[in-house]
Amino acid sequence: MSRRLSSSLLAAVVALSPIPLIATSTPAAAQFNVNINVGFDTFYDELSPYGDWNYHPRWGDVWRPRRIGADFRPYSRGYWVNTIEYGWTWETQDPWGDIPYHYGRWVMDPYDGWLWVPGYTWAPAWVVWRQGGGNIGWFPMPPDDRFLAGYDVYRADWNWDRGYFGYSDWYGPSIVAGLAAAWTFVALDRFADRDYYRYAVPQTRVVNIINNTTNITNYITVNNRIVNRSVDVAQVERAAGRRIDRVAARDVVRTPISTIDSGRQIATRERERHGGDVRAPARERVRELPAAEARVPVRERRSVQLERQQAQPGAQQQQQPDAQDRGGRANRDQQTTEPRGRVERDQQVTEPPRGQQGETARQRDERVQREQRQRPDRGAAIQGDVEQQQQRARAEQAERQQKDQAEQQNRARADQAEKQQQRDQVERQRRSQADQQQQQRAVVPVEPSQARGQQAERQQQQAAAAEERRARAQKGKTPEQQEEEERQRRERQK
Fold first, then answer.
1. Of the four listed, 99, 181, 194, 408, which is most buried by Cβ atoms within 10 Å?
2. Hey, how many other C-beta atoms are within 10 angstroms of the C-beta on 45?
């Protein structure tokens, strides 16, 4: 898809939309783009080359991108630009991203992957914000009940701890582990950079970061348009240590900008034609939406399917409806103001011409056989579509099995690595204890005989010292005193 909607596309939008162009009073810098009320037909034509359209009982007509990686998540290939008119605006690097990232919502289906649910009010981006601990992150805003009811405006009470934005009610608590991978977190000083894949927080840390951040989602309405005020520019500038430039929206926005009021009017019409049933379970699987049915309201598609089946070659010859039935169907078609588009063209080709007045039974049979030979093989085409669906389903099942096996192998390797770490820790403790014991044994104890010798030596030294003291004391004494002291000493020894 071109980076800017072509003039022919804008003309097609004007022709297909029953609501006329609406020009609103906007700031002078924002008057670069006329407020054109886009619709489902425009989205279908623009996105069909890049993905598949399907029908889901709850979400209605949805789109799935093709040629995306296993790690795909919305709002990851691109960067944020601080625009003058609308605040932080998502600048996509996906070739198809101009519409799905500024209109509608994304939902992650555990069976069918990421599905884009069309919406009709333009916004800088449809995401939920969280910030804390020096990190900031965003998550694709899901299609809540208010969105499905046609109120395509922002709300601020997005509490991750209360039902995980509704996913636990739709698909059960088991989906929570996969939802963490849909978050994109970066450090606050890297928020204004353009290469998030280099700086994004690893998925192993996302859960811990979510638990340490708070909801900062904050969008306001200015001149009937949505403006993003969720992220404080001053905080980003202080963290990054540089000034963040403000860019004119005309240099970033490449899609028509619908106002809140006009978007709500379009949503009321298009949800009746292409929406689902909020009472339907989200666990239902999608089915392919053929081009012939895409232009037809949901409530009328069953009759179109029956007409296509009746037009298949090999079908039994059916009775021609009488004039009253044909007139009734014609009246119903005339009462329907919505364009039938491709379905009418298909009917003009596939419906057999009515019988001619005055022809015989033989002539009628020959004419029917001739028309059947000339009619294109619709049955083969439908059979080919069925086979393609089956092949796609088998491929998706094989891909899911490969993902499951890869996850199991990763978990097994992680468990094995953890067990090996535990064994290494036990081995290190055992070696440390062995080293301590060896050091204790290395201290050589004193032999008993050596100890006795040392003690006798000390006693001799003490005796010699005492003898020396007595000799010094006896100096200056008479022989009688010395003899008396010697006698007393011998008695003490006895």
1. 99
2. 15
Amino acid identity at 421 = Q
Alpha carbon distance 104, 267 (integer Å): 10
- Give the closest residue to 351 by CA, choosing from 320, 311, 306: 311
Instruction: Give 67-115 as a DSSP string.
Output: S--TT--TT-SEEEEEETTTEEEEEE-STTTTTTTTSSEEEEETTTEEE
The pLDDT tens digits for 257-294 are 999 999 999 999 999 999 999 999 999 999 999 988 89
Distance, in Å, from the CA atom of 21 to the CA atom of 427, rounded to the nearest integer, reads 77
Give me the phi and psi of 352, to 5 degrees please.
-70, 145
Q: Which of 40, 41, 100 is nearest to 72 (CA)?
A: 100
- The confidence score (pLDDT) of residue 453 equals 74
Q: Which residues lie across from 128 on neighbouring strands?
A: 139
Question: pLDDT by residue (tens digit) across 152-186?
Answer: 677 788 888 778 899 999 998 888 878 989 999 99
pLDDT at res. 194 = 86
Query: Are the C-beta atoms of residues 33 and 250 closer than 8 Å to each other?
Result: yes
Q: Are 91 and 256 in contact (CB under 8 A)?
A: no
More confident residue, 375 or 400: 400
pLDDT at position 485, please?
77
Nearest to 99 by CA among 156, 150, 36: 36
DSSP state at residue 3: S
pLDDT at 27 over 50: no
Helices 7-16 and 40-47: angle between axes, nearest 10 degrees: 140
Q: How do 105-109 and 60-65 pair as beta strands?
A: unpaired
Check if the beta carbon of residue 232 is closer than 8 Å to that of residue 244: no
Highest averaged pLDDT of the listed ranges 14-23, 170-179, 432-441? 170-179
The structure's pTM equals 0.59
Q: What are the two backbone dihedrals, phi and then psi, of residue 82, each rounded to the nearest 5 degrees?
A: -85, 100
pLDDT at 34 over 50: no
Q: Where are the beta strands (DSSP E) in 276-359?
A: 287-288
Cα 262 from Cα 234, distance rounded (Å)? 33
User: Which SS3 state, helix, strand or coil, does residue 239 take?
Assistant: helix
Q: Which residues pair with 78 in a beta bridge?
A: 92
